[in-house]
């Protein structure tokens, strides 16, 4: 099945599989910055915003290189505490978390994308595709992209 035959949610899930972790993070950054005006109302208004803000604050408290590693760990589903906490979030809370990260990157409280970073052609093609989607399809695409990220929460009282 080609990406064009899938709904927006499934396209989001499928699309990031073809990008390495850093390019997945780069694509999310570009999506949130380019489409921020339309996505902004959906993400922070989501139920669970306070939970997303709490996880964001944990990442924000880290040194910049550790912030980047935490984002990489989430994208790669690494078995770390922050990645497990992220994995336990609802889809809307995950969207809000990435929104807060993008906002933090703009204010430089979160490590910004390097100024010389270039999104690979596959990422550029995806960004163009996302820009052509309706608002609801953009949200569905993002939900599909960020939902599979994060490690499975640990059993018992451990996160």
UniProtKB/TrEMBL annotation:
It comes from the Bacteria. One of its GO terms (cellular component) is phycobilisome. It holds the Pfam family Carot_N. The keyword Cell wall biogenesis/degradation does not apply. It comes from [Phormidium ambiguum] IAM M-71. The lineage of its organism: Bacteria, Bacillati, Cyanobacteriota, Cyanophyceae, Oscillatoriophycideae. This is Orange carotenoid protein. Residues 6-157 form the OCP N-terminal domain. GO terms for molecular function: chloride ion binding. One of its GO terms (biological process) is light absorption. Belongs to the orange carotenoid-binding protein family. Keywords: Antenna complex, Chromophore, Membrane, Phycobilisome, Thylakoid. PROSITE patterns: OCP_N (PS51773). The keyword Thylakoid applies.
């Amino acid at each position: 099945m080609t990406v064009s035959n899938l709904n927006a949610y499934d396209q989001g899930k499928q699309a990031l599989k073809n990008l390495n972790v850093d390019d997945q993070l780069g694509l999310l950054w570009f999506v949130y910055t380019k489409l921020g005006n339309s996505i902004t109302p959906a993400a922070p208004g989501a139920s669970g915003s306070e939970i997303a803000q709490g996880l964001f604050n944990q990442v924000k408290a880290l040194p910049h290189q550790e912030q980047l590693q935490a984002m990489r760990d989430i994208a790669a589903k690494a078995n770390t505490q922050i990645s497990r906490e992220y994995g336990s979030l609802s889809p809307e809370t995950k969207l809000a978390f990435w929104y807060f990260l993008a906002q933090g990157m703009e204010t430089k409280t979160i490590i910004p994308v390097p100024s010389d970073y270039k999104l690979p052609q596959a990422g550029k093609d995806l960004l163009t595709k996302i820009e052509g989607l309706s608002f609801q399809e953009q949200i569905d695409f993002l939900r599909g992209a960020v939902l599979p990220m994060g490690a499975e929460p640990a059993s018992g009282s451990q996160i």
